[in-house]
Amino acid sequence: xxxxxxxxxxxxxxxxxxxxxxxxxxxxxxxxxxxxxxxxxxxxxxxxxxxxxxxxxxxxxxxxxxxxxxxxxxxxxxxxxxxxxxxxxxxxxxxxxxxxxxxxxxxxxxxxxxxxxxxxx
Length: 121
Prior knowledge:
- This protein is mostly helical.
- It has a single domain (about 15-120), classed as Orthogonal Bundle (Arc Repressor Mutant, subunit A).
- About 55% of the residues lie in helices and about 10% in strands.
- Helix 3 packs across helix 4.
- The longest helix is centred in the C-terminal third of the chain and has 27 residues, at about 90-120.
C-alpha cells in the first residue's frame, strides 16, 4: 500500500470508510464479488474502463484491509480467486444504497451527459 506522508487519522468514521472503500472502482469490485468469487481477469473484464494495473492495485488494498480474500487455486499457473470476507459483506448495505441512489439519479445524469455532448453547458 502507498505510504502517505501525512499519517492517517482514525478520528472520523467517514474518513475511515473512504480510506477502505475510496477508489474509483472499489465499490464496484465489492458489488461484483457479492454475486460470486471472481478471478482477477474476470474483474478486469467487468470494468473495461479501468486498466488491469488499477484493478490489481485496488484488489491489493481491499485484501490488505480484510474486505476481500485472495485464494490461490493453482500456484503453478498463478490462478487465484477473490471473494468477500465477512467484513466485505458488512459493506453491502452501503453499496446497495449507492446503487439505489445511482438508479434514482440516472435520468438526471443522462440529461447532464446529453447537455455536455451537445455543447449546451
